[in-house]
Amino acid sequence: MATWSERLAGVRGVLLDISGVLYDSGAGGGVPIPGSVEAVARLKQSQLKVRFCTNESQRSRGKLVGLLQRLGFDISEGEVTAPAPAACQILKERGLRPHLLIHDEIRSEFDKIDTSNPNCVVIADACDAFSYKNMNKAFQVLMELENPVLISLGKGRYYKETSGLMLDVGAYMKALEYACGVEAEVVGKPSPEFFQSALQVMGVEAHQAIMIGDDIVGDVGGAQRCGMRALQVRTGKFRPSDEHHPEVKADGYVDNLAEAVDLLLQHLDK
Amino acid sequence: MATWSERLAGVRGVLLDISGVLYDSGAGGGVPIPGSVEAVARLKQSQLKVRFCTNESQRSRGKLVGLLQRLGFDISEGEVTAPAPAACQILKERGLRPHLLIHDEIRSEFDKIDTSNPNCVVIADACDAFSYKNMNKAFQVLMELENPVLISLGKGRYYKETSGLMLDVGAYMKALEYACGVEAEVVGKPSPEFFQSALQVMGVEAHQAIMIGDDIVGDVGGAQRCGMRALQVRTGKFRPSDEHHPEVKADGYVDNLAEAVDLLLQHLDK
């Protein structure tokens, strides 16, 4: 394998996943991953451009950022690319009025969206709101549409909380896809449009950017398909089998964000 | 298309789906589909062998049969092929100890099964018990197994209740398959073993048998792949688009069970 110096040559911008990289969510909000608070601070003091790119769809950006600030992170709402605002833009552009299968904590993101007489379903990481009743309602809305549109905020299989692995929105997206015979439109990682919108805000080309995430498919595979490089951290939902994934090979595996930032700053183009 | 006489030639045994053919389930138990009580009675008075072949996994066979008897049907528990008893046999044969994600109404079917220290998950139509908490628990059990085994009682997309279409177990099976990266073993229609076990009890060869159901894929397609003929009724979950299904074509479409029985008795081999 190439040296770190070769692998990191020409990097000008860093995209950071949040859950499983910065912190592990859980009861009471969650806990920072050791070293990550300092790593973010060091990265932001460097000449590298930094943006946070998350599939978090259980909390609004405001609430997520508030939580991370309380945990000690230097982060502001404007630095975060998240799927709910991206979905709202799509809804407006296409005149879609969603039935929302979402967590109450993210409902405020959809405040300005017309949800009367729905002509599509938007599904997000609803956690306990993924009741049979709520799933069945979303299913019935889709089945009554002539051209059913299902928009999913991410398609993650699971994420890591302090208490263990938790089912993510992708599982419920698959349930509705199968029941209704539709294919969901994914807003969030690994959708190329989503990564590209983050790069555009940073003003960095894909070949100059590197993604750091804990999801071998959603973060690493998705970023690489956009022409970016990607590192996988051995925190969050990382599992040892990820390093032998049949389809995706990261540009590097690191123990945590702190190690990734060490390497990046060490091999920064002078 | 061949005449009914040709299509029904040599039929000696009839397999009847229950939900959507005999009755529509719903609040208070459900209601018989008009003409079905009499149709079953006429069929059982004929020289044809009759067996009920259901994917019902929300109630035990005893409770289902009790309900149908109260609705007026001539049916006994021994005449019903259902997935829970078939699953119990598989669990015993393979030394599997299930974590059960099922409805309380069917729990008694698993009374004699060891559920300590689970090494597999059995999922059935759990309805309101498909909470996020219960789904997450099943997911976590599977993720902790070295060789995860997921057994699904049927894989229906949805069924019809008097109040409307309802999500069936198949949707939740797909959710767990995706989240865990496993493929479920389906016990119930359209599994060939399941149809064959029903035929064996009847003592009828596949080419002498006809399935009558409301599910174009699970009932009609499944039975045909076993060498049986199959009629679809325009009751239950039937939708007009089923008659133009891209992959499955029934040997006939009839308005309801009463019409199917009329045709069968009219064209019975003398």
Report on the structure:
The structure is a homodimer of 270-residue chains. Chain A is an alpha/beta fold. Chain A has 2 domains: 4-81 and 191-209 and 216-229 and 259-266, Rossmann fold (3-Layer(aba) Sandwich); 83-187, Rossmann fold (3-Layer(aba) Sandwich), CATH 3.40.50. In chain A, 34% of the residues lie in helices and 20% in strands. The first copy, chain A, is built from 9 helices and 14 strands. Chain A has helices at 4-7, 36-45, 61-70, 83-93, 132-144, 169-180, 192-202, 216-225, 257-266, and strands at 13-16, 23-26, 29-32, 49-53, 80-81, 98-101, 120-123, 150-153, 158-161, 164-167, 185-187, 209-213, 229-233, 252-254. In chain A, strands 5-4-1-12-13-14 form a 6-stranded parallel β-sheet. In chain A, strands 6-7-8-11 form a 4-stranded parallel β-sheet. In chain A, helix 2 packs parallel to helix 9 and helix 5 packs across helix 6. The first copy, chain A, is globular, with a radius of gyration of 18 Å. The two termini of chain A are 23 Å apart. The model of chain A has no long low-confidence stretch (mean pLDDT 96).
